[in-house]
Specification:
The protein is mainly alpha-helical. The protein has a domain at 16-46. The chain has helices at residues 12-23, 33-45, 56-67. The longest helix is centred in the middle third of the chain and has 13 residues, at 33-45.
């Protein structure tokens, strides 16, 4: 029999930090140190995009370059 600890619930600022990390928003310095650990852990775990996503104004030119 293995004893696995019960996962703890995130605090309000840890939850906000997690949301920000997944959305690509910056960390808010008003959040706690534990929120910083949550944020940094998620950012490190997420894959990085190797190419930049073109801005909407450049999307048409980008699409033409790919097809033309």
């Amino acid at each position: 029999m293995t004893n696995t600890p019960t996962p703890k619930s995130l605090t309000y600022d840890e939850n906000k930090a997690a949301d920000a990390a997944f959305a690509g928003r910056p960390f808010n310095d008003a959040w706690s140190a534990s929120a910083r650990m949550v944020y940094d852990g998620i950012v490190k775990a997420l894959p990085r995009a190797e190419t930049d996503v073109p801005a909407p104004a450049q999307a048409e030119t980008f699409a033409e370059a790919l097809t033309g």
